Amino acid sequence: MSDAAGFEEFYQGSRQRVLAFIYLRTNDLSEAQDVVQEAYMKAWQHWPSIDRHDNPEAWLRLVANRIAMSRWRRMRNRARAYLRHGPDDPLPEPSVNTVAVVAALRQLPEEQRTAIAMHYLLGLPVADVARETGAPIGTVKARLHRGRAALAMLMAPEPTEAADV
Predict the structure, then answer these.
(1) Count of CB atoms within 10 A of residue 148's CB?
(2) pLDDT band with cut points at 50, 70 and 90 for residue 16
(3) I need a surface site. Which of 15, 96, 104, 116 has the fewest CB within 10 A?
(4) pTM for this one?
(5) Residue 140 and residue 68 in one domain
(6) Interatomic CA distance for residues 118 and 139, integer angstroms
(7) pLDDT at 143 over 60
(8) What is the dihedral of CA 104, 105, 108, 111, to 10 degrees?
(9) Measured between alpha carbons, how far is residue 87 from residues 74, 110, 148 in Å?
């Protein structure tokens, strides 16, 4: 019997029992499914040696149980760290200027917006923007020029009409 066929037979014959066992350990079906899937992946990676075990299902249960315990410990440690340090400080509200710039950027074509964000917000040189977007350097320069011009128009203060006296 081939390795794949042997593993398939093992999987079909044991998956429900192993899932039920891990579900009883975790009390969370979704978590149990994730754990069992990871355990079967490990079993497949080492299948030629596991197949020679007296009880491959016992090996799989042991591995799945260890994975479940490891995940539980990580979650417990995260919870302890959260209790020890508390939540992150809340972020301040964006300024009126930030909101106006973001609103103006949203009105630009995607290519101009991307070029402006990469060049001015991320600080990438024009050559890097060109390489990452797959556009020629001249095209990136044109997008930056047109984008700046469009932003200037969008961000220009509204002219106020003089009151008649």
Answers:
(1) 15
(2) very high
(3) 96
(4) 0.51
(5) no
(6) 14
(7) yes
(8) 170
(9) 18, 35, 39
- CB-neighbour burial class of residue 103 (10 A; exposed 0-12, middle 13-18, buried 19+): exposed
| Amino acid of residue 26 | T
Question: Are residues 78 and 27 part of one domain?
Answer: yes
Is the pLDDT confidence value at 82 over 70? yes
Are 62 and 24 in the same domain? yes
Question: Do 65 and 130 sit in the same domain of this protein?
Answer: no
The answer to whether residues 42 and 111 belong to one domain is no
Q: Which residue is it, tokens 């600080």?
A: 123
pLDDT in tens, 30-79: 999 999 999 999 999 999 988 888 899 999 999 999 999 999 999 999 88
Domains contained in the chain, number: 2
Q: Could you tell me the residue range of the domain that residue 108 belongs to?
A: 96-155
55 and 8 share one domain: yes
